[in-house]
Amino acid sequence: MADTASNAIPRAAGTDMRSLLRRLAPFFGTPLNAALTIVLLWLMARFGWLLLDWAVLKAAIFPAEPETCAGTSGACWSFVIAKSGQILFGIYPPTERWRAGLVCVLIITTLVASARPSAWRPSLGLVWVGMMVVVLWLMGGGFGLATVPTSSWGGLPVTLILTVFAIGLGFPAAILLALGRRSALPVVRTLSVLFIETIRGLPLLSLLLVASILLPLFLPDSLLPDKFVRALIALTIFAAAYLAEVLRGGLQSIPGGQSEAAEALGLGYWKTQRLIILPQAIRIVIPALTNTIIVMIKNTSLVLVVGLFDLISSGKAALSDPAWPAPSTETFLFIGLIYFALAFSFARFADFLERSGAEKRG
Amino acid sequence: MKDVESQKDRSAAISIENLGKSFGDFQALRNVTLTVAQGERIVICGPSGSGKSTLIRTINRLEQHQTGRIVVEGTELTNDLKGIEKIRSEVGMVFQHFNLFPHLTILENCTLAPVWVRKLPREEAEETAMHFLRKVRIPEQAGKYPGQLSGGQQQRVAIARALCMRPRIMLFDEPTSALDPEMIKEVLDTMIELADEGMTMVCVTHEMGFAQAVADRVVFMDSGQIVEENQPAAFFSAPRNERTKLFLSQILGH
Ligand SMILES: Nc1ncnc2c1ncn2[C@@H]1O[C@H](COP(=O)(O)OP(=O)(O)OP(=O)(O)O)[C@@H](O)[C@H]1O
Ligand SMILES: [Mg+2]
C-alpha cells in the first residue's frame, strides 16, 4: 500500500493525462461516437448562444416600462419585473399584498424547518396546524385584517396553499386508506378499495369540475362550501388515493415477522403500525412518493379550469394588459422557473432522506 | 370439581386443553393437551409441518385457536383484547428469523416495548435494556443497527429485547435453525443461563443436546398431535412410539 502511494507521486502528471484520456474515451473512442459528440457539441453551442443572445444580450430589462421592450428582438424582462406583483399574487388587493407575500414566506419557512429528520416529533404536527391556521387568517383576513374573499386570492400563495394543504391533509388520509385496504375487517377493506379505485379511475379535471359545477346543483347554498375549499377537497382526495396506493406498495414489502414481533411484545395494532411498519414502509417508497408529490405540485395548476387564480392563471391575466406587448414566453418561463424550483428542491430533499436512511442501516 | 380445575390453572404457567386449530380445511392441531408448570422447561420437537410453530404461536395469540382452552398465567385467551395484551406483555417470544426492527438501534429495539407498553420512563427502560444486553454479552453493540450484527448477535439481541419486558414465560421457535453452526452455541448458552435462573420456557428446537441439558420434559409432535412426552433421559433412551423412534433415528443419525 505505502509502496504504490510513494510510486504514484512522481508519475502524477502522467496518470493525470491518462485518466483524462480514459474519461474522454466513451465520447471519442469510435468514429461514430466522435461524430455524435461533435454534432451534439455544435448543437449545444448553437442553441446555447441563441438562448444567451435572446435572454441576456438583447434582452430589454430596465427601466421596467412598456417602452423599454419596444424595439428589441430579445427577451422582454421588463414586463416580468413590472408585473411580478400581479403574476405572483394575482388579483389579491395590491394594498394587502404584503399578507400574501408573508403567507409564501411562512409556508416555505415551515417546509424548510421541517426538512431535518431530527425535527420530526409530535410537536411538529402542532406547528403545521398552527401554520395552516395563521396562513388562512393572513390570506382571508378577519380579526383585525381586512377581509379578502377566496375569489380574490391568486398566484403563488394559491399554488402553495393548494399544494401544502392537499398533501398535508391527503397524506394522513392516504395512510388510513392504505392500512384500510390491508385491514382484516371486510367492511373497512371494501370501503377503502372502493374509494381508492373510484378516485383513481377519474381524471383530476373531472373531479374538479364535479366539485365546482355539479356539487352546487345538489347542495343548498347554505351547505355549499366555498369554491376554493371545494377545489381543495377535490385535490386532497385525489392526492389521498394516489398516495395510498404508493404506501400500500411499501406496506406489502415489510415482512410479516415485523408485525408479529411487535405484537408479541404487546404493542397493539396502531402502535405497531406507527412505530414499526409505517416508518419502514414510507422509507422504502420515498422515490415513488416523491414522484406523486411532484405531480401533485404541478396538478394544482388545473384549478384554473374552475376559475381559481393560481400562478399560471394570474400570469395569463397579467399578459392581457393592452399597454404591454404581451411577452408570454418570458412570463411562462418565469412561472416555469418557480415550479421548477419547488419541484426540484423537493426532489433533492427526498434524495437526501433516502441516502440518510441507507447510511444509517449500513 | 370446577374449583379444583381453576386452582390448577392458577398454579400452572400455561394450561392447554383439547386445543384444536385449522387453516381452512387443514387441521393443524388436534386435541392438544399440555400443562406447563411455573419454572418448567419444555422442549417441543417433531417433523416439519407437525404443528410445533402453530402450537407455540397460539400461546400468545399470534394464531387464534378454534376449539379447546388456553389459560396463561391465570388469564384465558379469548377474543378479549385486554386479555391478549396482558398475556403478550407477560410472554416473551424469540423467532427463528430474529425479527429485529431494522430501522431502530439495538438499544431502541430493547426499549420500545417497555416505553410504549409498560410506560416506563425512558432512562429506566434504557437501564433495563443495558442490563439485559450485558447479560447476553453484547452491551457494546447498543448503538448499532441490527443489519450491522451477525446472526448470533442478532438472536441474542432478540432474547434481550424479549427479556426487557420482564416476562414470566419465554417462547422460542427454532431460535438456532437460521444460524451458522459456529453461532449456535452462543445462543444456546444464553438460553441455558436463562433456564438456570428458573425462567418458564417452551422451546421448539431440534438441538437435542440442549434438550438433554435443560429440558424437564420433551414433547414430540406429529400431524398436529402430541404423540409422546417424557423426561429427556427416558425420551431419548427409550422412546415408546414408533414415529418417535423413526424421528429420533433420523435426527440423531446424521
Ligand atoms: N397461515 C397458514 N395457513 C395455512 N396453513 C398453515 C399456516 N401456517 C401453518 N400452516 C400449515 O400448518 C401445518 C403446521 O405448520 P407449523 O408451521 O406449525 O409446522 P412446524 O411443525 O412448525 O414445521 P417446521 O418444522 O417446518 O417449522 C403445516 O402443514 C403448514 O403448512
Ligand atoms: Mg415451525
Structure keywords:
heterodimer; A: 362 residues; mainly alpha; MetI-like fold; two-stranded parallel sheet; 16 helices; globular; disordered N terminus; B: 254 residues; alpha/beta; 6-stranded mixed sheet; 4-stranded antiparallel sheet; 10 helices; binds adenosine-5'-triphosphate; binds magnesium ion
- Report the principal-axis shape of chain B: globular
Mean pLDDT of chain A: 85
User: C-alpha Rg of chain B, in Å?
Assistant: 18 Å
Strand content of chain B: 15-25%
Give me the secondary-structure category of chain A.
mainly alpha
Helix proportion range of chain B: 40-55%
Number of strands of chain B: 10
Order of SSEs of chain A: HHHHHHHEHHHHHHHEHH
Largest interface: A-B, 22 and 27 residues
List the SSEs and their pairings.
The complex is a heterodimer of chains A (362) and B (254).
Chain A: H1 2-8, H2 12-28, H3 31-57, H4 77-82, H5 84-89, H6 97-113, H7 122-140, E1 154-155, H8 156-181, H9 186-201, H10 204-218, H11 227-252, H12 256-264, H13 269-284, H14 286-299, E2 309-310, H15 311-319, H16 328-360
Parallel strand pairs in A: 1-2
Chain B: H1 2-11, E1 12-23, E2 26-37, E3 41-45, H2 52-59, E4 67-72, E5 75-76, H3 81-90, E6 91-94, H4 106-116, H5 122-135, H6 151-163, E7 169-173, H7 181-196, E8 200-204, H8 208-214, E9 217-222, E10 225-230, H9 232-237, H10 242-253
Parallel strand pairs in B: 3-8, 3-9, 6-7, 7-8
Antiparallel strand pairs in B: 1-2, 1-4, 4-5, 9-10
The complex binds adenosine-5'-triphosphate (ATP) and magnesium ion.
Adenosine-5'-triphosphate is lined by residues 23, 26, 28, 46, 48-54 of chain B.
